[in-house]
Amino acid sequence: MTTQNIPTHQQAILVHETGAPDVLKIAEAPVEQPGENQVLVKTAASGVNFIETYQRSGVYPMDLPYTPGDEAAGTVVAVGSGVTKFKVGDRLATAAAQSTYQEYFLVDAQQAVAVPDGISDEVAAALPLQGMTAHYLTRSTFEVKPEHTVLFHAGAGGVGGLAIQLMKAVGATVITTVSTDEKEAIARAHGADHVLRYENFETEVREITGGEGVDVVYDSVGLATFDSSLKTLKRRGMAVLFGGASGQVPPFDLQTLNKLGSLYVTRPSLWAYIATEEELTWRLEELFKSVLAGDLKVTIDQKFPLEKAAEAHAYLEDRKTRGKVILVP
Question: Any idea where the Enoyl reductase (ER) domain is (predicted)?
Fold first, then answer.
């Protein structure tokens, strides 16, 4: 194992019981050494994501105590046996680490990607989960091309904002929905061609497209929007349901797809689209290149020090975010 000087203990967020954000406590924890095919990374920044609020509150069961976090960036300080991809001093980013709400974290080498010069540690920590989600949706689930017209719900959100930029970079026409004037301004800043409210969006999309409908609709809202989303599609269009912010879509009659024009529906998840090291690396490297080329801007809304992880969770749960929230040790 190759190492540089590292302490035996570190500051970490520990959760001993599920509940409100104040169960996120700062404490001292040991620094673990990397095992086979692992690297130990000094944390530069850690992304804060909604799944961690569900784990903390008990919606998703976790073995207690635990340290939250999967997404982070930092510098390699120790390399386990069998690792040839990274060396001490390299910078990397990942969305599949172990316990990133701490000063050092472990990650399997094949689950991380080198961060190129010109990309800050904070951007590298903010990009993987939301960025790769936007990437697989618009590059793989339905490959958006210049001739396509797209409806993407929640255009002011983290995934929506990145997806709009990726789709505009290839020349597509993008329609999006938002709930407020403030969010409309954010969506327009991302490059959306048309910004609608959720009320009557189906009718307005038909008007914008001259009655034809869109090639694809991306829907993370779910229950409140899905039926109308289907009705915005042109013949043989695709509905991509990738979340359920308003509730889960119940089972429905597949004959509906026939009646509305031989439609397609898919329910993808990120992990099925980064199942191999090659695919993971392709997605994240392409995102980094887009940032360096100026085609993709990553908005970091708030930076919280590690010891204020509870405040970060409360901020996220209050739906105040206008970009990514990160923790900095």
Answer: 19-327
Contact present, 309 and 329 (Cβ < 8 Å) = no
User: Where do the CATH 3.90.180.10 domains begin and end in the chain?
Assistant: 2-127+298-328
Triad 140, 131, 319: Cα angle to 5°? 125
Phi, psi for 11 (deg, rounded to 5): -85, 135
pLDDT of the residue at 3: 55
Q: What is the pLDDT of residues 9-68, one digit of tens each?
A: 999 999 999 999 999 999 999 999 999 999 999 999 999 998 999 999 998 999 999 999
Q: Which CATH number is associated with domain 2-127+298-328?
A: 3.90.180.10
**Which of 144, 166, 130, 149 is closest to 242 using CA atoms?**
130
**Mean pLDDT confidence for 212-235:** 97
How many CA atoms lie within 13 Å of 217's alpha carbon, on the beta-carbon side? 30
**For the domain 130-271, what is the CATH code?**
3.40.50.720
- Which residues in the chain are classed under CATH 3.40.50.720? 130-271
Angle formed by the axes of helices 128-136 and 277-293, to 10°? Answer: 100
Judge contact between 68 and 101, C-beta under 8 A: yes
Mean of per-residue pLDDT scores for the chain: 96
Instruction: For residue range 270-291, list pLDDT tens digits in order.
Output: 999 999 999 999 999 999 999 9
Neighbour count for residue 106 (Cβ, 10 Å): 19
φ/ψ of 280, rounded to 5, equals -55, -50
